[in-house]
Model the fold of this input.
Amino acid sequence: MITVTKPFLPVRESFDKYVDRIYKTNWLTNFGPLERELTEKLKQYLNVEHLLLVNNGTLAMQVLYRALGLKGEVLTTPFSFVATTSTLVWENLKPKFVDIDMHSLNINPNLLESQITNKTSAILPVHVFGRACDVWQIQEIADKHNLKVIYDAAHAFNVTTHENKNILSYGDASTLSFHATKLFHTIEGGAIIAKDEAIIKECKKLINFGIAGYDRIEGVGTNSKMNEFAAAMGLAVLENIDNIMAERQRVNDSYDKLINTNLLPSKIETANNNCSYYPILLKDENTCLNVRDNLLANEIMPRRYFYPSLNTLDYVKYQSCPVSEDIAKRILCLPMYPSLTKEELIKITNIVNYAS
Ligand SMILES: Cc1ncc(COP(=O)(O)O)c(C=O)c1O
Done:
């Protein structure tokens, strides 16, 4: 079976070396030495100043909404993983869907202004599949209307813009997911990256029950800390990151050579492709299902990322987003992970090219 993704496991010795340290210190969680080491290494690697590790990408978002004091309506994209919307609803915020641009697959900045009301407090775009949003136009609109900008950057590990800045350094803050299936992972985990150190300090308090010092609780908090075993996996995976990136690039380039190029979404010119996903766009839903079924019949598991369009979820108020609804019905993500072989790629692309 070829799955859409396969978690990267470092060699045992590499992970064990960190686990041995946990056994030596007996420090398992609560901002331990490995969590601190991973924080520093990621800040350096990603070239960002303020970063807080958390136990998953979902809580990274929820905690951040609270730290930034979001209220009322949040403008967001309907084309994403469900957590982009559900985290807002969970925090009693109202998602207001702004349709996507058919080329970038990201929120369409030209449609943002018409959706802003006096209840809007923030914009929550997603760099979907690691494809950089138009961070410049989004910021211009946010500045004009005094709105916060939070990027759900769950897919955007290692994306650098043409300004030679990490994509995580745009907006007020960004969140990453370090779920096992991601390009970089800590089994379960995530991070909050913010421009302002005070936001990170507030988040650090919120992820630790509101504890602000010895015998001092300030407000309601939750528990969203990263444990030492997760940090150990992160440190071991980070040792392999150059190899992971190179392998993903190899798989991406092979796909590009083998696949019918009419199926590919437009390239993003303003930033690199981190090769976190390999999406293809079929001409309609029937063709999409036909390709999927042909792949499944050959024990290859693509995924309908992202279906359904989030504006159609049963717990949100439906707002029409024709581009997102159309794309969601006919997009498929093909297997993408470092160890995919040339033979496997030929098999996958032969089926896709034939069935589309
Ligand atoms: C766009 C997006 N946002 C948020 C999340 C949530 O991250 P996590 O699974 O780490 O909670 C995901 C997870 O895959 C995602 O794809």
